[in-house]
Amino acid sequence: MSADYEASPWKWVREQVETYERTGGKEARTLGDTEWPIVVVTTRGNRSGKVRKVPLMRVEHGGEYALVASMGGAPKHPVWYYNLKANPAITIQDGEAARKFEVRELEGDERSTWWARAVDAYPPYAEYQERTERLIPVFVATPR
Description:
4 helices; 7 strands
């Protein structure tokens, strides 16, 4: 890991990212003890400029990935949402492969299409949307 990497303050996130990266995605590849796969997304902090890593649900279609800023239906966006808005160049590790991507936030029909894909991949997203008044943001990550 680079010198400017700052691990998450949340223990489960730190441990999942470390195990996933150390094993090339062979371990810690699902959300907790479920069968829902994750990817590790590397961003740059919008305030600190430090490297940040977060496990997100794997929603892949045609080589692109949806990144859903659900935060479990909380009333506010996760911190990484602001990192993506400020610095859209990211890395996604899906298994052993880590590749560079560019992200953009989706709107309208394109968001609806990717939202449906996300709910298919991880059905709890629908419940998360019901819990919050905010429209949960969806980004698409396109390979660079």
